[in-house]
Amino acid sequence: MHIDEPIKFFGSAAKAAKAIGYNRVCFNDWRKKNGGIVSPKAAALFVSASKGKLDFGFSHYANAEVDTKEAA
C-alpha cells in the first residue's frame, strides 16, 4: 500500500496515523526509506481501520520477496 492511499482516505497523514495508532513521523520514514510503501503491518491496520475499503496491495510486497529469492 502506498502512503497516498490512507492519506487520501482519512484526509491527512496525521488522521491516517491516528487511525492505526502510529506516529505521523512514520509517513516520512516510509516515503524516504520505502519509496512510499507502508510496512505490511501498517497496511493490514489501514485495511482494518478503513473496514476493508483500502486495499492491502499485495503486489507491493510480493516484489520484495521475489528479489530475496533471486538473490539467494
TrEMBL record:
This is DNA-binding protein. It comes from the Bacteria. InterPro entries: Lambda_DNA-bd_dom_sf (IPR010982). GO terms for molecular function: DNA binding.
